[in-house]
Design goal:
Distance between the termini: 57 Å
Oligomer: single chain
Number of strands: 22
Number of domains: 2
Number of helices: 9
């Protein structure tokens, strides 16, 4: 039984026109980045800005030649792609360089399908290029999109400081930080055949470009081969399944500098690799409001961007400051069979799991690890402030969208439970490497605040402590909301519980 069906996370194909910026309503990405405005009906120009999130532009009608140009840049792997957008125009700045590289991450095959029966459907799911598809929708009555995702190119070494760019970078505004890959097919719902040769009418521009259709035989547009997407390798997608599907961008200069200290006060800084978060006052989420007794005040914090990994925890063990991560689970409610199944998911002794979150640690081990790093476990009210994006009042760390397979590692189709959170496969039956769900990032580029593993907090009484954030087992969306919580015994060791540390900003030396 599926608890709720998440909206299709439709992604798309991106590339620049070779001659310069892309005209709005044609091969245009930047309109997806513009804020929503009052829209007049009918025109592509009026529909600019229909995308909710400007960081994940979605389109589907780019010509093969332009897609190939972007693919070649991504696979070069020696720099990140820099783009400029203004209003309804986007341009890849080919002579501008940003340090970093793209690494390929294989995912378990994810299949999605959507049927568009109205212009509203079209603009919601294929917002850019939708104006050019309206005629096909009217002619055929409905369009069907099938999409398969098998992996992603993820940017490594991202530096959003505009001053770090090199070359001709005038007007640069964003970096391309992630590209989902696989295959798609867009066709008339009737599934009619396509005319060949000179009988095909091209809606695109240039050789091999655009959408091809025939009012007699139906409509079809594709890239990659859906049937070829059955497997993958660690170095790249399988043959005929490497089309770019979703593009994610991040604004240059998006990470603000730490606020200046008041005059006469010592400047306070965060440990290297952590994120400084300004404190504030907030009203807790409904699930946790009764715990805090009204509005809550939180001081400035430094936060680890990811859950503590197996590799990080092992370094603490080697330094003699931490006890080894247990290789077995323990909880009163586990019988022998359940304990054995749970213990098989403990990451501490599993090869190749260095980037996975350390799990099966009890509360005392979690606290000791953070103390050994000069930090501590967060209190519940601090954790919630972080997850809600501070004063942004988010329902989930990523925003307001319902949970789905590319937002969090939770209970999807791969889950053995009868009741599931979403219909897609998130790619992992147990834990996932930290940072695997970039679309599910919280504010300040914080990873896995929802799903993957619950995170121990400092809050609780007696032998109980609260955990926050949900896990790969979560089938209830309430667990992934910013107020979702459970209480565990301090000696419990579970495969779905891990660690995230916080620090107090310290005076600069």
């Amino acid at each position: 039984m599926v608890r709720r069906r998440a909206p299709l996370a439709l992604a798309a194909l991106l590339a620049s026109a070779p001659g310069g910026p892309l005209a709005c309503g044609q091969r245009n990405l930047a309109s997806a980045l513009a804020p929503a405005t009052d829209l007049a009906p009918a025109t592509g120009q009026a529909r600019c800005g229909v995308i909710k999130s400007h960081e994940r532009p979605l389109i589907i009608e780019w010509p093969a030649a332009d897609r190939g140009a972007l693919e070649s840049q991504i696979r070069r792997g020696d720099r990140l792609v820099v783009v400029r957008y203004e209003g309804c125009e986007m341009e890849i700045l080919r002579r501008c360089e940003a340090s970093g590289r793209y690494g390929f991450t294989a995912l378990e095959r994810k299949d999605d399908e959507a049927i568009m029966r109205s212009a509203d459907d079209l603009y919601a799911k294929i917002p850019l290029g939708a104006a050019r598809l309206e005629a096909e929708l009217e002619r055929h009555g409905a369009l069907r999109l099938a999409m398969t995702i098998v992996g992603a190119y993820e940017a490594e070494g991202v530096d959003l400081d505009p001053g770090a760019l090199r070359g001709r970078c005038e007007g640069a505004t964003h970096l391309v930080t992630s590209l989902s890959v696989g295959a798609f097919a867009l066709s008339s719902e009737s599934g009619a055949g396509i005319k060949a040769g000179a009988e095909v009418a091209s809606l695109g521009e240039g050789p091999g470009g655009g959408l091809r259709s025939s009012s007699e035989r139906g409509f079809h547009r594709s890239d990659g081969d859906l049937e070829a997407c059955g497997g993958w390798g660690s170095d790249g997608p399988p043959s005929r399944c490497g089309a770019l599907l979703r593009v994610e961008v991040e604004a240059l200069g998006a990470t603000p500098p730490a606020p200046e200290a008041p005059t006469g006060a010592a400047e306070k800084t965060c440990p290297k690799g952590t994120v400084r978060i300004e404190g504030g006052i907030y009203t807790p989420a409904e699930q946790s409001g009764r715990l805090f007794g009204g509005n809550v005040s939180v001081a400035d914090l430094c936060v680890a961007p990811t859950e503590v990994t197996v590799a990080e925890y092992r370094r603490c063990v080697r330094d003699g400051a931490c006890s080894p991560a247990p290789l077995s689970a323990q909880a009163e409610e586990l019988d022998d069979d359940a304990r054995a199944a749970e213990s098989a998911l403990c990451n501490g002794g599993r090869r190749g799991h260095g980037r996975h979150p350390v799990n099966c640690v009890d509360w005392h081990q979690a606290e000791s690890y953070c103390r050994a790093q000069g930090g501590r476990l967060p209190r519940e009210e601090e954790w919630e402030w972080i997850a809600r994006g501070g004063d942004q009042h988010r329902s989930y760390p990523w925003g307001e969208d319902d949970p789905e397979a590319d937002l969090a590692n939770a209970c999807g189709r791969e889950c053995s439970r009868e009741e599931r959170l979403f219909v897609g496969r998130d790619g992992h039956q147990g834990t996932a490497p930290v940072g695997s769900y970039r679309r599910g990032r919280g504010r300040w580029r914080l990873e896995d605040l929802a799903g993957n593993v619950w995170e121990w907090t400092a809050s609780g009484e007696g032998s109980a402590r609260a955990v926050r954030g949900g896990s790969f087992r979560s089938s209830d969306d309430g667990e992934l909301r910013v107020g979702g919580r459970e209480e565990l015994r301090v000696r419990d060791r579970r495969a779905d519980v891990g660690i995230r540390c916080v620090w107090e900003p310290a005076a600069a030396p």
